[in-house]
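From the thread on structure requests for the teaching lab: each student submitted one protein with a one-line request. Submission from student K.M.:

"Model Winged helix DNA-binding protein from Saccharopolyspora spinosa, tokens only."
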Amino acid sequence: MIEIDRERVLAYRHAVQQLDRSATGAEKLAVLPLGVQDSPAGSALQSVRTRVPEAELPDSLALGWSVRGSAHLHRAADLPELAGRLYPMSDADVVARMPIMKSVDAPLAVFGKTVAAMREHSLEPTDRGSLSAAVTRDVPEASAWCRACGSTHVFYSLYLQTGLAAGIRLVRQSGRLRITAAPQWRVPQQTARLDVLIRDGLRLLGPSSIADIAAFLGTSAAVLRPVWPTDLVEVAVDGKRSWFVPEATDALASPPSPRGVRLLPTGDPFLQARDRAQLVPDPEHRKALWRAVSSPGALLVDGEIVGTWRAKKAGTKLMVDVLGFHSLTGATRTEVDAEAEQLAATRDAKSAVVAFDSI
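Reply posted by the TA:
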């Protein structure tokens, strides 16, 4: 068994996720196999530019509902295989991902029926509400009254998690979400090569436990354990039993020391690892970063999360409020100012004004 400490794990993740800005273009980002989350809207571009400053998103990248049904940016060419990897394995897997599916008979069959309906009704460009209404008519057994909407509609989690298998693409235009379907799309009928996705998760977010990878995928350890690859390397991270891909053990053993300041948006890949106590050891700091609603972004300094940030536009300026977990040095503040200017450009603001505070 390999023994390693959290500092080396974080340094490895910083490097493998290219927070060292080693990527030469958006389409070459190493994190794309798992996707770059775009929730809240626009955060995927922020994550991309955190790694590749001033990058634009090429047509080879596409936005879709993928991991856990959340909107993620991926290479469009990767999506057909990813759809098979994310397709549920069993009734138990469907229920683990969407507990509300306990209320239907044959959850996996209903999942497939919903995929077919999502595909049929998205062949012409549509919007979220229109698609939901059409799918609800086809899958009434997976629908319920929604007090917030004031209507009966298909389970929202099911609606989102069937999108990728249906070949749905998302396009954000002028603040609105348009839905289209990929042409010549082959709808998966069953899970295919989930092991590849597990390995990608371990390579980018690992070393990790089975439970942590299951949580990232939105399922349970009980569902994932029977298909867990058998050739993985066992690793102890500060005594915690974890798993890792054998081909990356040299990189894990001697990662470069992380350097630099990064303003990570809420859904950034670095924050997607489920071992949050390793990412942020102090429970009060974790509480400040990961909130039930409207979480802030993370201030990353030399590979450590040392604070949070929020931003809002005021006219042509972007007002950035930084809350350090401790007092920040003058050099760090200068780097934050530079990162905030890049963030301002991404948010279509002319300049940034940064205010600092600490817990």
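TA comment: The first strand starts at residue 2 and ends at 4. The mean pLDDT is 97.
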